[in-house]
Design a protein that fits this description.
Number of domains: 1
Distance between the termini: 54 Å
Number of strands: 17
Number of helices: 13
CATH architecture: 3-Layer(aba) Sandwich
CATH topology: Alkaline Phosphatase, subunit A
Helix content: 25-40%
Structural class: alpha/beta
Strand content: 5-15%
CATH superfamily: Alkaline Phosphatase, subunit A
C-alpha cells in the first residue's frame, strides 16, 4: 500500500521533532560522537558486527601506479617470451579476449621481449628487472602477487574497480570504507588522505578524478582529503588575511550553534558532518603545517628517498609525507603516480617512471621498518592492470615501442601489515598472457586487504537505496596463502 506523500511528510516531521528534541535524541548523540573522540579510535575496538578477526594491520599506504606498469617488464620474468621475440602471438591465446581500441584485433601481433634483463634477488630469489634496483634490494620484504586479473580494459573504469569495487564512479573507495568501519587514529588529521604526482615530461594523458578518493554514498566526512604540493597543502585551510585565530574560533562557535539547531530539527547526518569538518579544519591549521615541514628529517633519511624528496609534489616527497602521516595516525594514505601508460614510449618513459618510483617506494618500506611501523602498516604497490606481452607498434621502430592494456594477468606487491615477506603467490603462463595458477581477482584482493585490517568483507556494509552495499559487492574471497 502506498502512503500519501503529505501524510508521509507529517510522520517524518513528527519523528524528526521527537528525536531532535528528546534528551536522548539522535542529533545530540551524533554530535557527541563527531566532536568527541571517534569511535574505535585506538584501532583495537572493532565492532563484533564487522569482525571477529584479529587485525594484522592498523593502517595502509597504497602506492597506486596510474596507467598500468608492465608486469612482463618489471617483475614477471618469462624466458619463453624473450626466446620468442618477434613471433606472432598464438591465436589460441586470443580467443574471447577483449583489448583496448588501440589494439583492436590482436591477431598477428608480435611478441615483445622485456627491455632489460632480470635477476633473482634475496633469499627468496624473487625475479626483478634491472629497471627496479632499489625494489630488488628489498625483495625479501615483499609479497609478490603475480596472478592478478581484472574485468576492465580501460583506465578510469579499471581504477574505479580497484579502488571502489565498481567500474562506475559514485561508490565509496577503500579509504572511505576504512574511515567508516574503523574510525580515526588521530582526531587532528584526516583518516583518509590522497596525494597525486606525475613526471612533468610524461606524454601519458592520465587524469586524476575525484572519484578515486570519493566517499560515494557514505557520509561525506569519510571522503579522502587531497593534499596539494607547496606551502598550502589543504586548500582554504589557512585564515584569510586579517582574520585572527580568536576571530576564527568565535566564528566557528557561532556556525556550530546554528548547525546544531538544524541538526536537532532534521537529524540529517550531513549537517553533523559539516560541524565535524569545520572542527577538523580548525585543528588541521596546526597539524598540517607541522606534517608538511620536513626540515627536521635527518639527512640520511632524505637521502634514502632520493633527490626528488626535496621537490614538493613529487612521488618521492609524497612517500615521505605518507610515512609522516601514518606515523601521526592517518589510517589510509593513497599515493597516485601517473604516466605508466606506455603505448609508444616503453623505451623512454618506462625508464622515467621507474626512476621516479623505484627508490622512494623501497625507501618507504625501509623507513617504516626502521621505525617499527612496517609490522602493522600494509604497503601496496601496483596499477589497474598489466600490459600486453605483444607489441603495440612496429617491431622495427624501437623508439616507439609500446604495449597495450592487459587485464588477464599482472603483478602487484605488498609489504608489512601481516603479509608473508619474501613470498611469491600465483603465476602467469609462459608468455605472461593468462593466469596459470592461483588467480587473484580484484575483489579477492579487496577482501584480503580488509581481512588484514581485521574486517570481514561480507559484514562491512552500508544500506543505500534499499540495498546493503559493500566494497567487494557480492564477490571476493580472502587469499589466505599470502597471510603471514
Amino acid at each position: 500500500m502506498t502512503m500519501h506523500p503529505i501524510t508521509e511528510r507529517q510522520l517524518l516531521v513528527n519523528r524528526r521533532y521527537f528525536f531532535g528534541k528528546s534528551a536522548t535524541g539522535i542529533g545530540m548523540a551524533a554530535l557527541a560522537s563527531l566532536l568527541g573522540e571517534d569511535a574505535f579510535a585506538n584501532g583495537d575496538e572493532i565492532p563484533a558486527a564487522i569482525t571477529q578477526i584479529a587485525p594484522k594491520a592498523k593502517r595502509v599506504i597504497y602506492l597506486f601506479q596510474n596507467g598500468a606498469p608492465s608486469h612482463v617488464e618489471l617483475f614477471d620474468y618469462k624466458p619463453e617470451l624473450a626466446k620468442r621475440h618477434g613471433e606472432a602471438v598464438p591465436d589460441s591465446l586470443l580467443a574471447g579476449k577483449r583489448f583496448s581500441t588501440m589494439t583492436g584485433n590482436a591477431s598477428g601481433k608480435k611478441l615483445l621481449a622485456p627491455l632489460e634483463p632480470f635477476q633473482n634477488h634475496g633469499k627468496s630469489g624473487a625475479t626483478v628487472s634491472s629497471l627496479m634496483p632499489f625494489t630488488a634490494g628489498i625483495a625479501d620484504e615483499l609479497c609478490f602477487v603475480k596472478s592478478m586479473f581484472t574485468e576492465q580494459v580501460n583506465h578510469a573504469p579499471a581504477i574505479n574497480f580497484f579502488l571502489s569495487g565498481n567500474q562506475l564512479p559514485g561508490r565509496p573507495t577503500i579509504g572511505a570504507w576504512l574511515s567508516y568501519g574503523l574510525g580515526s587514529l588521530n582526531r587532528n588529521l584526516p583518516t583518509f588522505v590522497a596525494m597525486t604526482s606525475v613526471n612533468p615530461a610524461t606524454t601519458c594523458g592520465q587524469i586524476f578524478y575525484d572519484s578515486y578518493w570519493s566517499s560515494g554514498f557514505l557520509p561525506s566526512r569519510h571522503q579522502g582529503v587531497k593534499l596539494h604540493a607547496g606551502s598550502d597543502p589543504v586548500l582554504y585551510l589557512n585564515n584569510p588575511q586579517g582574520v585572527s585565530p580568536e576571530l576564527r574560533r568565535n566564528m566557528l562557535d557561532g556556525i556550530a550553534q546554528l548547525n546544531q539547531r538544524k541538526l536537532e530539527e532534521s537529524g540529517d547526518p550531513e549537517v553533523a558532518t559539516r560541524i565535524a569538518q569545520y572542527e577538523m579544519a580548525y585543528r588541521m591549521q596546526t597539524s598540517v603545517p607541522e606534517l608538511a615541514d620536513i626540515s627536521g628529517e635527518p639527512k640520511e633519511v632524505l637521502d634514502m628517498y632520493g633527490p626528488d624528496v626535496n621537490k614538493p609534489g613529487t612521488f618521492a616527497r609524497n612517500c615521505l609525507l605518507a610515512r609522516r602521516l601514518v606515523e601521526r595516525g592517518t589510517r589510509f594514505v593513497q599515493l597516485m603516480h601517473a604516466g605508466w601508460d606506455q603505448h609508444k614510449s616503453l623505451t623512454t618513459e618506462l625508464y622515467s617512471q621507474c626512476k621516479d618510483t623505484d627508490q622512494p617506494s623501497a625507501a618507504l618500506v625501509k623507513d617504516l621498518k626502521m621505525r617499527g611501523l612496517l609490522e602493522d602498516t600494509l604497503v601496496i604497490w601496483g596499477g589497474e592492470f598489466g600490459r600486453t606481452p605483444f607489441i603495440q607498434g612496429d617491431l622495427n621502430d624501437r623508439p616507439n615501442w609500446g604495449r597495450d592494456h592487459h587485464p588477464y594477468a599482472f603483478t602487484l606487491w605488498m609489504a608489512g601489515g601481516g603479509v608473508k615477506a619474501g613470498y611469491t603467490h600465483g603465476e602467469s603462463d609462459e608468455l605472461g598472457f593468462n593466469v596459470a595458477k592461483e588467480g587473484v581477482h580484484v575483489h579477492d584482493f579487496q577482501a584480503t586487504l580488509l581481512h588484514l585490517l581485521g574486517i570481514d568483507h561480507e559484514k562491512l556494509t552500508y544500506k543505500f537505496q534499499g540495498r546493503h552495499y559493500r566494497l567487494t559487492d557480492v564477490h571476493g574471497k580472502v587469499v589466505k596463502a599470502v597471510l603471514a
